[in-house]
Amino acid sequence: MLDTIWVEKYRPKKLDEIVGQEEVVKRLKGYVENRNLPNLLFAGPPGTGKTTAALALARELYGREWRANFLELNASDERGIDVVRTKIKDFARTMAIGGAFKIVFLDEADALTKDAQHALRRIMEMYASTCRFILSCNYSSKIIEPIQSRCALFRFKPLDDEAVKKRIMYIAEKEGLKLTEDAVKAIIYIAEGDLRKAINTLQSAAAFGKEIDADTIYKVVARARPEEVKEIILNALKGNFIQARDKLRELMINYGMSGEDIISQLHRESLGLKIPERAKVALVDVIGEYDFRIREGSNELIQLEALLAQFLRIGREIKEGKYD
Question: What is the pLDDT of residue 85?
Answer without folding.
Answer: 74
